[in-house]
Design brief:
The chain is an alpha+beta fold. It is 24% helix and 47% strand.
Length: 662
């Protein structure tokens, strides 16, 4: 009997061993079976063809390894998702407590291709199947899935927008997700993402599939902005966007309407630099701080509690062909698409710019002109793109100049603009390249104060410029260059400057800003030249106004029957002498003119000419007695030929010139 039980026990052990061996053998082939099943039924399961290089399952360690997984697009022509390998291990003990515990998942070379066509994406069908599955699973199964230590390396995401024609790629993505817990209907995910370009993102995700609502809390630390370059390159000719971003964001929304998600929080960008296609820093900021009250792309809302930009720097360069670097910066095709883009209503409760810098360069001149604005400060309250805004600011111009301005405008239409500007202590020598190019004179001295008030209504500009220059000085016109305009600038500057060394000019400006040929700078410059031309035509008249004489000093009326001047005529001659003493670097010419034909009807020619000669002599003697050096004036001799055709007033015409401007 005992022998029978020994044989029975031995047989049972052998039977169990064979069963275990058979089960182990079956499990060893389960990966191959699963691979075959998935590849054969992938289209019916998820609506996509699926290929797997290899799938292995270790029954002893509950480990799984997948190699060369490819999920194709719906048309089966290219990959929607692929990965080179996926490994994971399941802990068996918690299964008895209805817990699926995956110890670790490692994914290498994950590739995802995202295509957007209007409001539709190439993964909408997969999303719909997921929603359908979640709706079928209405009862809480009580199972919990706990996944720990998910690692992704060498990831890549490609994005393409068919409508806009834009595309970008994120390369070398690496993620480290310590834990994902899926419990019943609610999903809570905690992730820590490390990016190869630098930076880290802590993310807490809560998702309710029943309501399709998600809440995301994101904490960024030193996130590299180079990944933003592809976005900027869609509409800007830029090479690189460099810097780092830190901050905290809260995102709330529904998965069916991701674009309508609400975002709020704080962000700070540091050492932000955007390089243009010439590898110049077209924009730089030491820090950019934004407090976001609400951002909703779908509803077109961008509301900031505050935006603070510290240490911004940019440059503006006019090329030889009169285009500028900002024109080159914009891509034409995106300018054409601008109207199709959703309108964003930007609101900033408090906007401030501190310690900004702008480098300006003009290459259209024979000698390039460079100028700097520094210590730029700007403030604006309740800023909105769709309404009138008042921006107040100040800056340092050149080395020690000071600029203050108040600019009122709406930045959408830019048809109604009010600009008040005050500039003081501006060193005019800095602008010599312009004066040499346009009029041939170098600026040798002068400090300017400029007050400008400008109004633009419906595109029509009306402005007034009050210019005061202390001790202006320009050189003789260069004989080696051919200026754009032949203008007596030196004479004009000298004639308009009083004894205190001040030159005051009132210059109105009008124009149509929609006219492509309109230039405020050129309009002001031409206005100045017109003033100098008028001064050249009648310098004594300008000098008289400057001396506040209240009379034109460019002529002295005479009585043809007298050989000398009357009391009133000597009074005016005294004013002219005062002008000659004030402007003793000019040469003055006195030309006696009268209607000879009319005079001969009353007197004989000999007497008429004798009286005229006496008046010339009396004028010369008076100027000599008043201490005017003879080198500074000329009393022109009487010439019958010049009198024969004269039909104007009987007077002495007075002119003042520099020899170079004759």
């Amino acid at each position: 009997m005992a022998g029978f039980f020994r044989k029975l026990r031995k047989g049972l052990l052998w039977t169990l061993a064979v069963a275990v061996a058979l089960v182990t053998l079956i499990l060893s082939f389960s990966g191959t079976i699963a691979r075959y099943y998935i590849q054969k039924n992938g289209n019916s399961l998820i609506g996509r063809d699926v290929t797997i290089g290899s799938l292995s399952i270790n029954p002893l360690t509950a480990g799984m390894r997948v190699k060369d997984l490819h999920i194709l697009e719906k048309d089966g022509k290219e990959d929607f998702l692929s990965l080179s390998s996926l490994e994971g291990n399941i802990r068996l003990r918690p299964v008895t407590r209805r817990i699926i515990n995956i110890k670790g998942i490692r994914i290498d070379s994950l590739y995802i291709n995202i295509v957007q066509d209007g409001d539709h994406f190439n993964f909408d069908d997969l999303k719909d199947k997921l929603y359908a599955y979640l709706e079928e699973d209405t009862e809480d199964s009580g199972w919990v899935m706990d996944i720990r230590n998910i690692a992704l390396s060498g990831g890549k995401i490609r994005y393409r927008d068919k409508v806009l024609g834009s595309k970008f790629a994120l390369n070398k993505i690496s993620l480290d997700i310590p834990k994902i817990n899926l419990s019943g209907k609610n999903t809570d995910v905690g992730t820590v993402l490390s990016f190869e370009e630098g930076g880290q993102m802590d993310c807490r995700i809560s998702y309710n599939p029943d309501r399709s609502r998600f809440n995301v809390n994101v904490s960024l630390k030193d996130f590299g902005t180079e990944g933003l370059t592809p976005y900027l390159q869609q509409f800007l000719n830029v090479k690189r966007c460099k810097g780092s971003v830190s901050g905290n964001l809260e995102i709330h929304g529904q998965t069916q309407h991701i674009a309508d998600a609400d975002i709020k929080g704080d962000l700070i960008a540091e050492d932000l630099k955007v390089m243009d296609d010439r590898r110049e820093a077209v924009f730089f900021a030491q820090t950019l701080k934004a407090k976001i009250s609400r951002f909703n792309l779908g509803k077109g809302i961008a509301r900031l509690k505050s935006l603070e930009i510290n240490g911004p720097k940019t440059y503006y360069e006019i090329m030889e062909d009169s285009t500028d670097n900002f024109t080159h910066l914009l891509k034409d095709e995106d300018q054409q698409r601008e109207e199709e883009s959703p309108q964003i209503i930007l609101t900033i409760d408090s906007l401030s710019v501190r310690d900004g810098k702008v480098d300006f360069k003009d290459n259209t001149l024979k000698e390039s002109f460079s100028y700097k604005l520094s210590e730029i400060n700007l403030t604006c309250s309740d800023f909105r793109l769709d309404k009138m805004n008042i921006l107040k600011g100040s800056a340092v111009a050149g080395k020690a100049g000071k600029v203050e301005f108040e600019w009122t405008t709406d930045f959408v239409r830019m048809k109604n603009v009010y600009l008040d500007l005050k500039a003081s202590n501006i060193n005019l020598k800095d602008f010599t390249p312009y004066s040499k190019y346009y009029v041939g004179n170098s600026i040798e001295g002068g400090t300017m104060k400029w007050e400008s008030r400008n109004t633009i209504i419906g595109g029509h500009l009306e402005g007034n410029n009050q210019i005061e220059i202390y001790k202006p000085k320009v050189s003789r016109r260069s004989r080696r260059t051919e200026p754009v305009y032949q203008a007596p600038v030196r004479l004009g500057v000298y004639a308009l400057t009083n004894k205190k060394g001040l030159m005051n000019i009132n210059l109105p400006v009008k124009g149509d800003i929609d006219n492509p040929d309109f230039s405020y700078r050129k309009t002001v410059f031409k206005g100045m030249l017109n003033i100098f031309m008028k001064v050249s035509a009648a310098p004594l008249r300008a000098i008289g106004k400057m001396l506040a004489k209240g009379e034109d000093l460019d002529h002295i009326e005479i009585d043809l029957e007298e050989d000398d001047f009357s009391t009133s005529e000597y009074g005016k001659l005294g004013s002219i002498v005062e002008a000659m003493q004030e402007k003793d670097e000019l040469h003055y010419t006195f030309r006696q003119r009268f209607n000879l034909k009319k005079a001969l009807k009353k007197e004989e020619k000999e007497k008429v000419l004798s009286l005229a000669q006496s008046r010339n002599e009396n004028l010369s003697n008076y100027l000599k007695r008043m201490g005017i050096p003879s080198r500074n004036y000329t009393v022109e001799a009487i010439h019958e030929d010049s009198l024969a055709s004269y039909r104007g007033k009987n007077c002495f015409l007075v002119d003042a010139v520099w020899e170079e401007d004759q």
